[in-house]
Fold this protein.
Amino acid sequence: MSDDKLAPWIARQLETLLAQRGHAWLLTGPSGLGQYDLALELVRAWLCEEPSAQGACGRCGSCHAIEVRTHADLCLLMPETAMLALGWPLSEAAQSDIDDKKRKASKEIRIEAMRDAVEFSQRTSARGRGKAILLYPAERMNAVAANALLKTLEEPSGDVRFVLASEAAHQLLPTIRSRCLAHTMAWPQSDAALSWLREQGVDAVQAGVILRAAGGRPQDALQFFRSGTDAQAWVDLPRAMARGDLNVLKDWTPSQTVSALQKLCHDMLAIRTGAASRFFSAADLPAGGSMAGLTRWARTLSDVKRTVEHPFNVGLMLEALVSEAQNALNSGQ
Ligand SMILES: [Zn+2]
């Protein structure tokens, strides 16, 4: 990511972190607030040949090497699926295994990648500005990988720095957490998030809807937009569910559907208890739905959430979900 695209709330946090010394940072907070962007900007600044207080210069050889994804002093530890999604090359061995269909891209940080990282941390810096290891999402490493990392964190060779970013820091070993300086990701003000979304090409009306749909998390909102999901479908969802209309869900995966219904159920319960809705505009929510009906629905949805990645039959599951939604939304007051 080049400087001009950096969201203002990320830029502010970057400055704060750069003003402090630390060889290992742990960025924590929920998804969608820009952990990966901040982590990458931090390592770009560390490795940059002419960094300023605001971060990397964006012009030097080091910045260019990161831009083209081939920096000898930067080691990324991410699940292979995340590496591929973010445009980072895999190790030759990993890529050829996947090309030869020996295995699928891993959703975890593999122990082999961690071993490469440990070796990397012991090498001399190629460009002379130290080395950096970026780990994201840090909770996606198993116990073996975590222990290998821990040794490196405890006895880092002089010139290696770490940034770990996590959306579930409570799942990390306490010993890893305690070796890092923690930074909690800041939530952007909603007008800053809205204008950033507009800069990314989202129109003003859609920006409001998708930011709300993402619970105020701008990066999640942008992902929602880029997935091609129609913002109008989000606005229509509550009433469509009250009518038992499946059509509105046609572009969504089962797991997106369940998470959308959980947000709807959350907002219906919030309204019933006199709180404000969070994900939908109150005007778009149906009038029905009893506390008992909605509470039952919330329980069903959290059960479904656990098995949604492996549904027995997607069509049947969707029909059942919509029918449950319709019942809950029309249950007596
Ligand atoms: Zn630079």
User: Anything to note?
Assistant: The pocket of zinc ion is lined by residues 48-50, 56-60, 62-63 (CB under 6 Å).
